[in-house]
Amino acid sequence: MIHSVTVRVPATTANLGPGFDCLGAALTLYNQFQFSSQVCSSTLDSAADGVKITVTGLDADRVTTDERNLVYQAFVKVYEKIGQIPPNVAIDIHLNVPLARGLGSSATAIVGGLVGANQLAGAPLTIEEVMHLAIAMEGHPDNVVPALIGGCRIAVSNDAAYYEASNWMICPVAWHPEIVPVLAIPDFELATETARKVLPANYSRADVIFNTSNFGLLLLALETANGDWLRVAMRDRIHQPYRKTLIAGYDMVRQAAINSGAYGVVISGAGPTLLALTSPNYATEVATTIAATWDQQGVKAEVKVLAIDHAGAKYDVCLDPS
Ligand SMILES: Nc1ncnc2c1ncn2[C@@H]1O[C@H](COP(=O)(O)OP(=O)(O)O)[C@@H](O)[C@H]1O
Ligand SMILES: N[C@@H](CCOP(=O)(O)O)C(=O)O
Q1: CA distance 307 to 322
Q2: Is 42 annotated to bind ligand?
Q3: Pocket-forming residues, ligand 2, beta carbon under 6 Å
Q4: What's the predicted TM-score (pTM) here?
Q5: DSSP labels, 51-79
Q6: Which of 181, 256, 261, 298 is 20 to 30 A from 168, comparing alpha carbons?
Q7: Which of 106, 243, 267 to mutate to test the pocket of ligand 1 (most atoms within 8 A of CB)?
Q8: Handedness of CA 194, 200, 201, 204 (dihedral sign)
């Protein structure tokens, strides 16, 4: 019998400029979730029956430890899907991905909870079924998909209604190893829900064509590391023009990063983290410049030079000694 499951889930950077709600990549920064079976609820000291949650690491005090916790909600979803009552469980969460910064913290929580529950239940669901549950919970595929399977991915819906889709085609996007993601994480939060509310419901034909052409070019540029293409292809008219007003210093930081060698700078996920893509030779210079420029605007930012994670969610299972 399985005693505990430990799941490691990567952060993500979604959208990458023109790929709003359909393109995202996993990053080498991870949250960890451990799920341990409990014998009976009388051994648990949480207010919620059947679950005890502890959280350590970054922003730990900001995460709820009762049954509203997103990891636990995802855990329960698996048992609903298989028609079983969720077992009593202790969940230990260790956070390295900051909350509400555009690095997919909610995606790690959803994927961690789903993968943990599925393994604890003896793996009744396929990875596709886990993915569909994750997309339905998050409401869009671009962060949960790379968080689950790693790499850079495009999600395409086979259904007419994109956001209600139950059929998804997931395709890998080649990412040239000489393209380095530099992430600049400011010291303020921006909830995805808030950043989605500022977007218009409709777009002009010109804006749609602008994004479609840049998106196509971006895929070629990521595969080939063609700098001339990348400098053009990271432009977007679907979300960034509206969201940048929520990110103090955005234009100045973007221009300074480009002047110091970045191909381009985009909002990571829903923001406020900024993603610069650059070559290995310029990565340190770009990182230093972004931090210094934001500092001049009164914004403290942590800057990380990362790589693309190709593994996605990884788990270890520990069997009951008896
Ligand atoms: N490990 C976690 N456990 C529980 N809830 C989490 C966890 N990580 C994130 N969340 C929830 O997700 C919210 C952040 O989600 P969101 O606004 O989409 O930002 P992000 O861009 O980081 O995904 C947090 O405020 C919290 O409610
Ligand atoms: N496409 C979504 C992506 C949100 O990603 P997150 O990492 O900020 O949760 C959006 O742009 O709203």
Answers
A1: 41
A2: no
A3: 12, 14-15, 20-21, 102-104, 106, 140, 142-143, 192, 195-196, 239, 269-270
A4: 0.96
A5: EEEEEEETTGGGS--STT-HHHHHHHHHH
A6: 181
A7: 106
A8: negative
The ipTM assigned to this model is: 0.98
Pairing of strands 2-14, 264-267: unpaired
What is the per-residue DSSP string for 244-300? GGGSTTHHHHHHHHHHTT-SEEEE-TTSSSEEEEE-GGGHHHHHHHHHHHHHHTT--
Q: Ligand 2 centre and the CA of 269: distance in Å?
A: 4
Query: Could you say which DSSP state residue 101 is in?
Result: S
CB neighbours of 279 closer than 8 A, spacing ≥ 6?
Answer: 178, 179, 180, 225, 227, 261, 263
CA-based R_g, the chain, Å: 20
Q: Supply 168's token pair.
A: 């998804």
Averages of pLDDT over each 10 residues, the chain, 322 residues: 93 98 98 87 52 96 96 98 97 98 98 98 97 97 98 92 89 98 97 97 98 98 98 98 97 98 98 98 98 96 98 94 70
